[in-house]
Design a protein that fits this description.
The protein is mostly helical. It has 6 helices and no strands. The chain is about 80% helix and about 0% strand. The longest helix is centred in the first third of the chain and has 35 residues.
């Protein structure tokens, strides 16, 4: 596979990962709403299939965007195992990622506060339902954001570099 196709595949994986992070709480919210209107003995199999499909999207996109490209290992590697170029691009990506992450956390904090105090009205009740899931997703985003920036901006590593990183 040539580099442009591999880069496009990585970018689609990044989009899929973040799309999955948005879809998962949305599907769970609607599943809980639908479950409230069903009789106790029935089970919403359609919603379960939706949740499993979103989870499959998350796993597949994580493998495509971060696992196959080696960006996950690059951003989670010890600094003494990286060369100067890898240190530089990892440092730049991590700095940008945590700047974005800090803004995301502040927005989430303000939304939680506003939803808990009913400042935004009763239509914000989905925050009450999915706040634990969103906290776990913020942790996941903290781990994938530096790799996502690398996967979006950097050309894929040559196969021999990825294999040597796996050996370390």
């Amino acid at each position: 596979m040539d580099r442009s196709k591999q880069l496009m595949r990585q970018r689609l994986g990044v989009v899929g990962a973040f799309l999955g992070c948005v879809l998962l709480p949305t599907v769970i919210f609607f599943a809980e709403r639908a479950n409230d209107s069903l009789p106790r003995e029935s089970f919403p199999y359609g919603w379960l299939a939706g949740i499993l499909a979103v989870m499959a999207l998350l796993v597949y996109s994580h493998i495509v965007a971060f696992g196959l490209s080696g960006h996950w290992k690059l951003t989670h590697a010890r600094t003494d195992t990286l060369d100067e170029r890898e240190l530089q691009i990892t440092h730049r990506a991590t700095g940008q990622a945590y700047g974005i992450y800090a803004i995301m956390c502040l927005i989430m904090l303000y939304v939680f506060i506003a939803a808990r105090t009913d400042l935004l009205g009763p239509h914000m009740s989905f925050v009450r339902i999915t706040d634990k899931l969103l906290a776990f997703e913020l942790l996941y985003v903290a781990h994938i954001l530096p790799g996502a920036i690398l996967a979006w901006r950097e050309t894929p590593a040559p196969p021999e570099r990825v294999e040597s990183a796996e050996a370390v």
